[in-house]
Amino acid sequence: MVERSPVFDDDPGPVVPVPPVLVSHPGRHCLGVDTEVFFPVSELGVLQARLVCTGCPVRVACREWATATGQYGIWGGTTADERDTARRAEIGVVAARSAVAA
After folding, report:
1. Burial classification of residue 28, based on how many CB atoms lie within 10 Å of its CB (0-12 exposed, 13-18 middle, 19 or more buried)
2. Relative to the CA of 53, which of 12, 18, 21, 33 has its CA 20 to 30 Å away?
């Protein structure tokens, strides 16, 4: 499983270990792929990383972990910006439901 890349991350912050379910899954598509693929510097690189993630059996768990821990790079086929946007949207839905219930 890929971890933060020191090449593209000047301040990695606290290192959060990747969960064993992601690291040890024998069917994960990133097994044996150069980790630099998941820290692209161009749109073409993003597409290449997404291709690796396509159909991966741990894609959802990978994306959820990266979202929860604020990871940089491509995780579960999504960029950090996409995960941040999804997280903000989920927070908005929860807040709206709480306001209606109150």
Report:
1. buried
2. 12
The burial class, CB within 10 Å (0-12 / 13-18 / 19+), for 1 is: buried
Are 39 and 72 in contact by the 8 Å Cβ rule? The answer is yes
The rounded distance, in Å, linking the Cα atoms of 61 and 38 is 16
CB 52 within 8 A of CB 33: yes
List the chain residues with pLDDT less than 50. 1-2, 4-9
The Cα–Cα gap between 5 and 73 comes to: 9
Q: Return the closest-CA partner of residue 52 out of 75, 69, 68.
A: 75
Q: What number of CA atoms fall less than 13 Å from residue 17's CA on the CB side? A: 5
